[in-house]
Automatic annotation (TrEMBL):
<keyword id="KW-0732">Signal</keyword>
<dbReference type="Pfam" id="PF13449">
    <property type="entry name" value="Phytase-like"/>
</dbReference>
<dbReference type="InterPro" id="IPR027372">
    <property type="entry name" value="Phytase-like_dom"/>
</dbReference>
<feature type="domain" description="Phytase-like">
    <location>
        <begin position="104"/>
        <end position="495"/>
    </location>
</feature>
<feature type="signal peptide">
    <location>
        <begin position="1"/>
        <end position="21"/>
    </location>
</feature>
<protein>
    <recommendedName>
        <fullName>Phytase-like domain-containing protein</fullName>
    </recommendedName>
</protein>
Length: 540
């Protein structure tokens, strides 16, 4: 009897798994075949925003393996080889269906740490996550629950060329290492968090852009920052092995000498402001290298300032639209050779909190993504959203930039690209890049598919302010030959939580806002122009 029961249940199991694969069971297809939310044609190439297809988040009080609060949207980078399209059986309600999902490994980067009350000795780092994304056909009438899962794997702490921890403190000095340019650094007192201690000096970084390296056999990470603004290379363990200093025009100057402070005093001395507060020239405070990307073949690195430099109109939001992008040839292992410089005109928007008739203001950019053929995605946005004066964002878009016809101004070594810092008018001898508005995050009919919205109550369904990252994944899970791509963007939540930890879990913090901002993530589906290759080699 016992034997019989056992074998018959085995039979049932075998039949069930056969039934899973049988074609009579309808596959839940969730890929749209027609219709779109937005479209643009840029220098003859057409881009289509099909739909918002995914939403997920990492909770604001999630902690890494060192015990510190996780924030992560300043930049993200996909391990391309890891991206896979899969299917799995789903049981429920007496039915068994097959769903399509994707898996991949995503590197995510926070900036300089919790700093709403001052910068700290916190050590910048990278977090590795496994992503699990199940596209859903959703609509506003029955919104989908979150369908993007982010499973924490690991954290890498960033260290200087001598192996010492880097910190997020505002730079007050420099450190010199053989073979490196002068590195922005901070002298600190106490424990660097406002408690007792011996003090010391640490290299300072405010990381904003992340690219995984494929040129060196040992891999590693390129990271752009906004103190220098510099571009750094780190090995796989998180140790700095290269620093790239941009042309002199980019280096912030006070009293005629380099001065890397961004006017964000340390938490232990809120009065330690740089004098003068703003540099006289070079990158504006907190407007450094926000955008970093690499060409599909891994050989060209592009880095873009958030908005214009001070001498290009950078001190005023009505004049700071002419930002600059640098191109580096990184095909020679361990080298980065400046190979191009372009002016990009950022978009402008009307700020409803200002007097009617006020001049349009610049939407600074927070990330770029190379698409091939001299075209790029650029994520530009105003400063509105959850936790700001106005929860309703006026401009939050992934747009298209084309540099094919733009002047390469690198040979001219220009200190300024505008007629005067106060006018912000571009020199007539420069052809800027073409800028084409494209994918608007703030379309409520799309957001409502996941119960989200732009504006309204300052709650967890309202979009965060700081969307600062882009990763792209082929919809076919393979090489994207059909030009159908997912675009993932994540927001930087500024470590805002009522249940926070810094200093390897030793110090608890409670953000003064009284808020908890999750680290939100959105998956958009786009159709790229014919034969686009954001990346063609599955080499990392
Ligand atoms: C199961 O399938 C039946 C028949 O197709 C359908 O009516 C029912 O809604 C399904 N149940 C669930 C939970 O999906
Ligand atoms: C610039 O000069 C002023 C006036 O002499 C001085 O107070 C300030 O510390 C100087 N700033 C820097 C960064 O050298
Ligand atoms: C893209 O390719 C399709 C099919 O090959 C073709 O019909 C269409 O004209 C192409 N579009 C452009 C803009 O080249």
């Amino acid at each position: 009897m016992v034997r019989f029961t056992l074998s018959s249940s085995l039979l049932v199991l075998a039949f069930a798994s056969f039934a899973t694969a049988a074609p009579s069971l309808q596959e839940r297809t969730s890929e749209p075949t027609s219709g779109f939310v937005g479209q643009t044609t840029c220098n003859g190439k057409t881009y289509t925003y099909r739909e918002l297809a995914g939403y997920g988040f990492v909770p604001s009080n999630f902690r890494d393996k060192y015990g510190d609060t996780v924030s992560l949207g300043s930049s993200i980078a996909l391990e391309r080889k890891s991206w896979e399209k899969k299917t799995r059986a789903v049981l429920g309600g007496g039915n068994r269906t097959i769903e399509t999902y994707y898996e991949g490994t995503l590197w995510t980067m926070p900036d300089r740490g919790w700093n709403t009350e001052g910068t700290t000795l916190w050590q910048p780092r990278l977090h590795k996550f496994q992503i699990d994304f199940t596209p859903k056909l959703a609509n506003a009438a029955s919104p989908s629950p979150p369908n993007v899962k982010l499973l924490y794997i690991d954290t890498i702490l960033l260290r200087d060329p001598s192996g010492k921890p880097i910190s997020g403190l505002e730079p007050t000095t420099i450190l010199n290492y053989g073979g490196f340019p002068a590195l922005p650094a901070a002298k600190y007192t106490g424990d660097g968090f406002g408690g007792a201690g011996q003090g010391g000096v640490r290299v300072s970084m405010d990381p904003e852009g992340l690219v995984l390296d494929t040129q060196d056999d040992d891999g590693g990470f390129w990271i752009s920052d906004e103190y220098g603004p510099y571009v750094y290379k780190f090995d796989k363990t998180g140790k700095m092995n290269m620093a790239v200093r941009p042309p002199d025009a980019y280096i912030p100057q006070r009293n005629g000498t380099q001065s890397f402070a961004s006017n964000n005093p340390p938490i232990y001395n809120p009065d330690l402001h740089p004098v003068p507060a703003n540099p006289e020239s070079g990158r504006s405070n907190n407007q450094g290298f926000e955008g970093l990307t690499v060409s599909g073949d891994g050989k060209s690195l592009y880095v873009m300032l958030q908005s214009a430099m001070i001498q290009d109109g950078g001190l005023d939001k009505t004049t700071n639209r002419y930002t600059r992008m640098l191109e580096y040839d990184i095909s020679g292992k361990g080298k980065a050779k400046l190979s191009g410089e372009y002016v990009v005109p950022l978009p402008q928007y009307i700020d409803p909190t200002k007097k009617p008739g006020s001049k349009p203001r610049t939407a600074g950019q927070s990330e770029i993504q190379a698409l091939g053929d001299d075209q790029f995605f650029v994520l530009s946005r105003d400063g509105f959203g959850r936790g700001t004066d106005l929860t309703t964002s006026q401009y939050r878009q992934i747009d298209v930039v084309d540099i094919r016809k733009a002047s390469d101004i690198k040979p001219r070594k220009l200190q300024t690209v505008t007629t005067s810092p106060t006018s912000g008018t571009l020199l007539s001898s420069i052809t800027p890049a073409m800028y084409c508005p494209f994918l608007n995050f703030n379309v409520d009919s799309e957001l409502s598919k996941f119960g989200l919205r732009n504006g309204g109550a300052d709650d967890e369904n309202c979009l965060n302010e700081k969307w600062e990252s882009i990763a792209m994944m082929p919809v076919d899970g393979n090489d994207g030959d059909d030009d159908e791509w997912w675009v993932l963007s994540m927001s930087d939540n500024d470590f805002i939580t009522q249940d926070g930890y810094i200093s390897t879990g030793d110090i608890r913090y409670v953000d003064g806002s009284g808020k908890n901002f999750d680290n939100q993530a959105l998956f958009f589906r786009v159709k790229l122009p014919n034969n686009s290759k954001p990346f063609s080699e599955k080499n990392y």
